[in-house]
Every structure is written in C-alpha cells, then in structure tokens.
Amino acid sequence: MSFRSACLDWLQGLGIAIGSGFIAFYANISVAQITPDGTLPNNSNVKLEGNTRIIEGGTTRGGNLFHSFGEFSVPNGSTALFNNALDIQNILTRVTGKSISNIDGLIKSKGTANLFLINPNGIIFGKDASLNIGGSFVATTANAIGFGNLGFFSASNPEAPSALLTVNPNALLFNQIAASPIQNSSIAPAGIDPEGSDAFGLRVPDGQSLLLVGGNVNINGGILNAYGGRVELGGLTSSGTVALQIDGNNFRLGFPAFSTRGDVSLANNSGVYVEADGGGSIAVNARNLEMTGGSFLQAGIESGNGSDNSKAGNITVNATGAINLNNGYIVNQVQEEANGQGGDVNISASTLQVEAGSYVSTATRGKGKGGNLSVDAQDVQLIGTSANGNSPSALGTSAREESTGDAGNLTINTNTLLVGDGARVSTATRGKGKGGNLSVDAQDVQLIGTSADGRSRSALSASAQPNSRGDAGNLTIKTNTLLVRDGANVNTATFSVGKGGNLSVDAQDVQLIGISANGQNATLLSADALEDSRGDAGNLTIKTNTLLVRDGAQVNTNTYGAGKAGDLSVVALDVQLIGITANDQYASGLGASAWENSTGDAGNLTIKTNTLLVRDGANVNTVTFGMGKGGNLSVDVQDVQLIGTSADGQYPSVLAASAQRNSKGDAGNLTIKTNTLLVRDGAGVSTATLSAGKGGNLTINTQQLLVRDRAGVSVRSSGLGNAGNLFVNAPSIRLDNSAKISADTTGGGGNIFINSPFLILRRGSSITTNASGNDITGGNITIDAKNGFIVAVPNENSDIRADSANFRGGNVTIKNIAGIFGIQSRKELSPNTSDITAKGATPDLSGNIEITQPDVDPSNGLVELPVNLVDASSQISTACTPGTRQFQNTFVATGRGGLPMSPTEPLQDSSTVSAWVKLRPKLENLANTTPVPKSTAVSTTSIAATIPIVEASGWVIDRKGNIKLVAQVPQLNPHSPWQTPADCPVSQGGVKYDKSSAAKASS
C-alpha cells in the first residue's frame, strides 16, 4: 500500500473530510526534514554528511537524553544518526510540529541506549525503513511520556524537561480525541537471525523490546524482529494513559480498562518474530485485531538453540472487540533440535474468528514441553480451510515428530463455540511426549460439516498420532448445548502405543445429527484405538438432560488394534436414537465395538436414563468382530421403547450384544432393568454369536414386557459357540401379532427362563427354542407362573416350543400355574392351533413337557371342624307364628321413628307419629282430622288361625287424606308426582334411564 493510500484510509477511518487541507498536509510530508524546534535548554543540532543526518546536542538529565524537533523524517536511502554519549540509557525524541514522521531510511544510535520516537501526528515506516540501535525502540503517537509524579515530556505542549527527569519513563499519555496511527511496511535487510537465516524488517538487538504504540497500528507487508526480546503492539483512540514498565531490556505496556483502544492489523505477509534461545514474547492490546494474507505472530525457541533451562516467552493478544484471522497465524513453538520449554499463547477477546486456514497453536518439535493455549472470548468461530484445502482453520497444541516433550493443554472459555466447514480444535502428540488436554467450557458448542472437498471434518479432538509414544490427552466439554452435525466429529484417539484420552461431555442438551454432504462420514462422538495402535482407547462419558442421535450419527467407543476399547457411559433424562442414512451406510447408534483385525476387547456400554427410545433402524449395541471379547450392555431405564425398522425394512431397531462372523471372542451380556419395555414393528432385543465365541446372556427385569408386530426378544447362535440364556422377570408379559421370545442355536445353549404370573400370547406369537446344529439339543423353556395364568387363543397359532431340527428337543417346564387357557401340549405341532411342543428330529428324541400346579401343604392353614353341630331349627324365633298371642296386628311402618326394637314391644307414642308429613291435605278435611292417641293398648285376644292373612299389595288415600294399605287397588287413579323429579338420566344395564322410563317402571 502506498503512503498516500495509507493516509487516505487513516483519515477516512477518522471521519475527516479530504480536501485542500489534506493536500497541504501531504505536501509537508513530502519535504519532511529533521528540524530542531529550539524548545530545549540545550537544543538539538542536525548536520548533514552525505546521506547521513547527524543528530547531536540535546538536553541530558542523568541517563536520559532529550531531543525535540519540529519535524522528523528519514528519506529513502538516508540515515538519521543519534551521536549520543555511550553512557546514555534513554534517547527521548519528540516531534512538536504538525507533520507525520515518514521513516524510509535508517535510524541509528550509539551504545546501548533505548530510543523513543514520539509524534502525535503519526509515524509511518516504509518498506526500506530499518533500525540500528543498541537498545529497545519505542515508536508512539502519544502526546507525552510521563515520569511518574515528577513530570512529563510532551510533544503537544513543549516545555523544558525538569531537572528531576532522570528516571526511566513509566507512562505514555494520550489526550487526543483520536490518536494518530502507526504503520510499518519495512522489509529491509536486518542481518542474520539466531537460526542463521536472513532477517528482514525493523529489528532491535536480540533480547531488546520493540513497541509500536499509536492510535491504530497497521503492519502492511512489514516485519518486526526482536529475537529473544519483546514486541508490543497497541494503542488508544481516546484520551488515557498507557502504563510503561521497564525492567532491564523488557518493556511492558499496561492499558487502561475504560479507554477506547486502537485497532491493530497485519496484512500481506506481515509478521512479528521473537524466536531465539529463550525469552521472546509478543503482546497485542487492541480493540480489534485483524490478521490477513499470510500474516503471523511467531514466538518460541529457535532450531538448534536453547538449553534445559530455557523457556520461550508468551504470546498474549487482548482485544476488547474482535480478533479476526483470515489466512493468519499465531504460533509459539519449540523448533527441531531445540531445548527448553515453549511459551504459552493467551487469547482474550469479545469475538475470535479463525478462517481460511488460519491457526493459533503451541507446539514442541524438540526436547522441551510445548506451551499452553488459552482462549477466553464471548464468541469463538473457526470456519473452513485454506484455499487449497490442505490446512484447516484451527486452534491446537501438539508435540511434533521427533519431540520428547509433552504437548501443552488447550482451554477454551466462551459463550459460543462454532467449528464449521472442516475447521478443527485439537491437541495431539506425534512424538514421545504426551498430548495435551483439551477443555471447553461454553454455553453453546456447535460443530458442523466438513470442508468443501470432504477431506477435513469439523472436529474437537485429542489424539496420539501414528509413530507417537505418548498418551493422548483428555477431552472435556462442559456446555448447555452441544450440537454435532453433517459429518463433524468430537473424539479422542490413539493411533500408536500410547493410550487414547478420555472424552467427557457434561451438557444440558446433546444432539448428533446426520452425515457429511458426500455421504462418506457419519457425525461422531467417539473414543477410539485406531488401526495399528497398541494402546487402549479412552472412556466416553456423557452426562446430559437430553441426548438425541439421529439420521446416521453415532456415539461410540472402538478398538481397531491391540488395545482395548473404552467404556461408554450415558447418564441422561431422555435418550433418543432415530433412523439411518438414506444410503443405508450408517445407522444412528450408541455402540462399543472391537473391529476386524483387532485383538483388544470391546468396551462396556452403560445407559441410565428415564426414557430410552430407539426407532426406525437405530441401534444400541456392543459387538466384537475381532479376537477380543464383546462388551457388556447394561440399560437401567424407567421406560424403554424399540420401534420399527429402516424405511426399506432391512435394518431393525435393536438393543444387542454380539460376536460377529469371523470373530474369536465371546459376546457380552445384555441386561435391561426398566419399568416398561416395549418392542414393536420388527424391532429386536438380542444377544448373539455368529462365530466360535459364546453368546451373551440376556436378562430383562421389568414390570411390563410388551412385544408386538413382528418384534422379538432373543438369544442366538449361528456359529460354533453356545447361545446365551434368556431370563425374563416381569409381572406382565404380552406377545401380540407374530411377536417372539426365542433362543435359536447351532452351537448349543439357548435356554429360556421366564418368571411371570401373567403371560398372554396373541395372533401367531411364540416362545421358542430351536436347535438346528448336528447333535445339538434344543434349549429348555422354563416358565414359573407364580400361581398365575398363561392365556392364548386356540386358533391363533401362538406356540410355546422347545424343538430341535436335527437332534433332541428341549424340555418345556411350566410350574406354579393356576391356569392355562387356549393353548395345550401336543406331541406334534398342529397348524393353526396354539400348541406346546418339545419336538426332536425323531419322535424318540423329543423333549419333555411338564406342567405343575402350585405345591399345597395340607397341614398349613387348615381349621379343625367341631364334632357337635348346632341344630339350626332351635335358632329360629317363633314369636311371629300366625295364631300366637304375639301375632295380633299387621305390619305398620311408623315413619321416621323406625321399627320397634322387637316385635313383642309396643308401638312408640305419638311423638313417633308426629314425624309423619301429610302432603297437600284438602282444606275441607282439616277440621275432621282425628288426633292420634299418645298410646295404644295391646290386645291379648287370640286371633283365629283360620283367618287368612292377605298381604298388602297397594295403598290408597281416603277422603280424609289418610293413607291405607290394601290388598287390592280397586281402581288406578294416577296422580301427578308431588315433587318434580330431577332430570338426571342414569345408565342401568346399558339402558338410558330417564323420566319417561321411570314413569313406565312405576306403572
């Protein structure tokens, strides 16, 4: 970029109008000179010798030499030489005029003095600018340099420095509304670096500091070099004070918390080098940092340098706004054949964006440890790869080939972490040392997709790479939401002799969805021991409220080598696994596997959750394809549902533990503990061996087992190994519509044990064992009904069978049965009936069928009956026998007072009768009403026994309004009801009961 273009950008960034004022301003620059301003007690002198401007004079206070100029610029091909005394410590140079300092030539000083150049108007270093000084260099557009409480040396308000200004400066004072920028484009030759290569750009002596402190700081194609020293970039665009700490050769800046910082940019292969045999640090303090076009910040220990006690300095980038790396690099590393410990990289920003193949990393290629990488930002985004696809955008720490030291740790603290389009966040070892730990603490973590060509997957990973000797680091994610989709992955892995790291996820919600766009890569959350590895894989632990795995995504632990696979543990409130990919290549799943050619055992899989849903071809399994054993699968869930198959019906939804074809190890056991287990629509729960190893046992403990619609629960052997046994303990078992509980074997074993008081088989469902191998006895079926029932429909072909196709049938034992309905034992299977069989290859090889009722102890709970029985006739009262003295009146209901205590007692007095209510008496009858006497005498006259007793069958109201019971009603005179009946229809025996039906009933 030309000087004029840079000024235009700067002025436009400040919002300053470009007109005649700018033309005059630019003209001042074009004729810039080194001109003393005459403001010091002892003024500066400038003399020209050839192309060298020799600067002498100035005012000395202790070890400080002060120069003051109206303008200060060094034209291309010329030199500005400070002819200072050798005992001067600091040369402080201010520009009090209105011109930018345009440095296109060489600035030189004598001795080891530090050089300060202060110009509030701006400082620009051209491509041929260079330094040849003995100490540190500070270029700043501050208004003044402060000396604590002793005073300041100001360019905006020139005055003679106090005689007390003999100490080191400690502050840079900015009081502009917007401070001017500093720009560097220097690529001038700068000698030989510590590695022996040519250096270019602005350079201070090794171990010294180089500080550019402006408003904005722009490095456009330029290089800054401070090998083993320190480079600081930053500035303010509002008033404030930047602290300056000088400790020997080490200069450090401290920025105020509430002032507005300037922006820092590096473009067009710009860079900062501080690598040496130790030390070497970089600090950037900015509002925004932008690095583009192959620009870099690089620290560490140079190749062939350092010692066991050497330590590289740190790279610290602190931005109040955004850090954007677009084809930019921040690296702190121990180089090949170097000794010593690498420095750290610390990133702090509101937003960190790393794209187009950019990376931030620490590494060791030598004997020392690599540094740590720490990122603290509100939002972190890593996007894409380099233009050629070879380099992903990345955050990483590593121990490289031939290194002996450990890699550093990587820590990310953020609200949002997005890793997309093939970018990566990783720790790795390729050497003898350990890989670093990777820790992410975020509100939201998203990993999405792959690179455009599919070669690079978006990833969080911690690994031990091929030919490494050390263990991989652990990967820990703590977040509210973890989303991994479209072929991205989160994994720990070992490719070599070291162990794989543990992977731990602690989240509110975890979602893994889909596969890559090219269909080749499933979305993964995994811990692996990969091909040719000898180390064990790490464990994978997920703790979450909700885990969703769908559309071919997978959560698994694997071994492909000699080491063991890690254990997979899921603790959640809800787990859902749904579907497979459209190309049938990947099924959504949770798994622990030992793959082909592996010799290590598979890991165990444990799930503890409230609800587990597996549907549409998804699976949960442990499996071995190799020499090692399959892992155990344990499910402790409130509710388990396995539903359906893939859309084409080829792949059922399953819970399974198996040893696959050509494997040598045993399959693991499968244990399910749940309140409800539903298996339907072709889904399955099983253990199986397809090879020489044994099949695992399947144990189900549930309150309710419902298997329906061609679904199955099974143990199976189709190889030489024995099938496992199947145990079901459930108060209720329902099999419906071709559902199966089965144990099929070609290698032996395969018994079924069922404990249930309530077993229903409907519509072609079955409980079967079937041995089809030569000389293989069929498995036994034992059902303990616990004094319960087995129910089937006779013509629905629901069977209980313990058959053998080639040898002896198994035994069927049903004990403690209270009743068997709709199914019966037979010697031969009868079509279209519900049967119990134990058929062998020939009738003499049939098994036994034994059905027993609960055992009864006759002496338990029985009561001995008395010998002398009571005569029941003597217990019947004769008081009401017709013809006796007591039988002298008809039955009378006395109203609310109720019945007398005994038929022999007299009726109650008139207080009882007074409880009667006479409804609607006619007014003419009120005067003739006869009072009821208080008591009634009981007659002792005998009633002739021959007088027949006729029971009352109705009642009438006489003319006086009295109610009388009568044997017959002479004529039915319906009356309207005295009270309006409630309109409340009542169901009685399935008939609607309403007012009309009530009227019919009463009539």
Question: Short description, anyone?
Answer:
With 1003 residues, this protein is mainly beta. Helix content is 3%, strand content 44%.
What would your notes on this structure say?
The chain has 4 helices and 72 strands. Among the domains are: 34-273, 3 Solenoid (Pectate Lyase C-like); 541-683, no CATH class; 697-854, no CATH class. A hairpin with a 5-residue loop joins strand 18 (189-192) and strand 19. The strands form 6 sheets. The protein has a 6-stranded parallel β-barrel. A 5-stranded mixed β-sheet has the order 2-3-6-9-12, with no helix packed on it. Strands 15-14-16-25-26 form a 5-stranded antiparallel β-sheet, with no helix packed on it. By secondary structure, it is mainly beta. Mean pLDDT is 85; it is low at 1-32, 909-946 and 971-1003. This is Filamentous hemagglutinin outer membrane protein. Residues 37-148 form the Filamentous haemagglutinin FhaB/tRNA nuclease CdiA-like TPS domain. Residues 385-396, 458-468 have a biased composition (Polar residues).
Record the SSE blueprint.
Blueprint: H1 3-14, H2 20-30, E1 35-36, E2 44-49, E3 52-57, E4 59-61, E5 64-71, E6 79-82, E7 90-95, E8 101-103, E9 106-109, E10 114-118, E11 123-125, E12 130-132, E13 137-140, E14 144-146, E15 152-154, E16 171-174, E17 182-184, E18 189-192, E19 198-200, E20 202-203, E21 209-214, E22 217-220, E23 223-225, E24 230-235, E25 240-247, E26 250-254, E27 264-267, E28 271-273, E29 281-286, E30 289-301, E31 315-319, E32 322-334, E33 345-355, E34 359-364, E35 373-383, E36 394-399, E37 410-420, E38 424-429, E39 438-448, E40 459-464, E41 475-485, E42 489-494, E43 503-513, E44 524-529, E45 540-550, E46 554-559, E47 568-578, E48 589-594, E49 605-615, E50 619-624, E51 633-643, E52 654-659, E53 670-680, E54 684-689, E55 698-708, E56 712-717, E57 726-729, E58 732-736, E59 740-745, E60 752-755, E61 758-762, E62 766-771, E63 781-792, E64 799-804, E65 812-821, E66 824-825, E67 835-837, E68 849-851, H3 910-913, E69 954-957, E70 963-966, E71 986-988, E72 991-993, H4 995-1002
Parallel strand pairs: 3-6, 5-7, 6-9, 7-10, 8-11, 9-12, 10-13, 11-17, 13-21, 17-22, 20-23, 21-24, 22-27, 23-28, 24-29, 27-30, 28-30, 29-31, 30-32, 31-33, 32-33, 32-34, 33-35, 34-36, 35-37, 36-38, 37-39, 38-40, 39-41, 40-42, 41-43, 42-44, 43-45, 44-46, 45-47, 46-48, 47-49, 48-50, 49-51, 50-52, ...
Antiparallel strand pairs: 1-5, 2-3, 4-5, 14-15, 14-16, 16-25, 18-19, 25-26, 69-70, 71-72
